[in-house]
Amino acid sequence: MADIRKLALDGVLEITPKRFSDARGFFSETYNATDLATQGIDLVFVQDNQSLSSTAGVLRGLHYQLPPYAQAKLVRVVRGAILDVAVDIRRSSASFGKWVSLELSAEKWNQILVPAGFAHGFVTLTDNTEVIYKVTNPYSPAHDRGIRFDDPAIGIAWPSFAGGPVLSDKDRAAPLLADAAVFD
């Protein structure tokens, strides 16, 4: 059974699957719905996504989808390392606008569970970083939204990189939290 640790924001969890090593390498059950359900995590994942970032400093996010296509995400790194960030964007939440971060890496073998109602993003800490994540709803362009990674009202402490982070045009143009459609 995986080790589960609660992070600073309600519902955001670090999950570390067991790894069994021997002279050949290792084996790990990276996801087991039954085991997680016995620990109160009863989600149905419908899609797996994978990204490769060729250099350190690639920043992806902050992304989310609005209902009825809101997504919970289970994120893990299979090569390299990232700083993963979740931002509470539920207006009715006492932690609205607050964020939590966690370093995920292939070496640590840890994962982060980001509930629906949170914006999600990460920055690569190493070259050639590969990230795989499960989501509870399929991608829906009509419900896809983003928030600026450097919104001063949120104040995420991203690591600095020479020349700044590498961003997509979409992420560069994302609105501030105050101007974004969020959860009620």
What's the helix and strand layout?
Elements: E1 3-6, E2 13-16, E3 20-22, E4 25-27, H1 33-38, E5 47-53, E6 59-65, E7 73-79, E8 81-88, E9 99-105, E10 111-114, E11 118-124, E12 129-135, E13 144-146, H2 169-172
Description:
By secondary structure, the chain is mainly β. It is 5% helix and 39% strand. The chain is built from two helices and 13 strands; from the N terminus they run E-E-E-E-H-E-E-E-E-E-E-E-E-E-H. The chain has helices spanning 33-38, 169-172; strands spanning 3-6, 13-16, 20-22, 25-27, 47-53, 59-65, 73-79, 81-88, 99-105, 111-114, 118-124, 129-135, 144-146. The strands form three sheets. Strands 1-2-10-7-12-5 form a six-stranded antiparallel β-sheet, with no helix packed on it. The longest helix has 6 residues, at 33-38. The radius of gyration is 16 Å and the shape is globular. 34% of the residues are buried. The mean pLDDT is 97.
What keywords describe this structure?
184 residues, mainly beta, six-stranded antiparallel sheet, 13 strands, 5% helix, 39% strand, globular
What's the helix count? Answer: 2
Give the structural class.
mainly beta
Strand order of the largest sheet: 1-2-10-7-12-5
Shape: globular
Q: Would you identify the regions where 5 or more consecutive residues have pLDDT less than 50?
A: none
